[in-house]
Each structure stands twice: as C-alpha cells, then as structure tokens.
Amino acid sequence: MKKLNPEYIKRVNQMVNRSPYFELLSMQIRDVGLGFSVLEIDLAEKHLQPFGLVHGGVFASIIDAAAFWALFYEIEDQDAGATTVDLKFTGGSL
Q: Fewer CB atoms inside 10 Å of the end CB: C or N, the chain?
C-alpha cells in the first residue's frame, strides 16, 4: 500500500490554499489522502447569485477541486497533472 509523506502533503496543501483561485473563493483543503479530500469554503456574500443563493459555480468549483485532490496522490507522475473533462449537475426545485 502506498504511504504518503505528511510533510509533503502539508507543504502542497499550504501552496494550494494560498493559490489565487482558492483565495478568491475562500476555499481551503482541510484534509486529503489516498482517494479522499475534504475542502471547505468560508461562504460570504461574494458567493451569492442575484437571488441570494450560493452560485452554482461555487458548488462546481468545490466539487471539481475535491475530486482532483482526492486523486492527486494516486497519480504516479504528479508532474503529469490532470484536468476535468466533464462535470454535470442535475438540480431540483427550491
């Protein structure tokens, strides 16, 4: 079983949490490991759409980022990177 270096994870998380997009959304990685990640957004008025609800793009961003970081440490060549090809949501009514 693959074992992760906690110091490496800590440094990567710090770098990611200080990245411009994460800071823009007030989003942070709280925990990560092989096959899982926990991200958090400090919701504020800037996240709301005109009707006062959290904008769907905020949900898409956190889902996209959480999926990426859940898989990141399982990628053998971490310089290879990854990108989202498709992301679909189906919603209900309020």
A: N
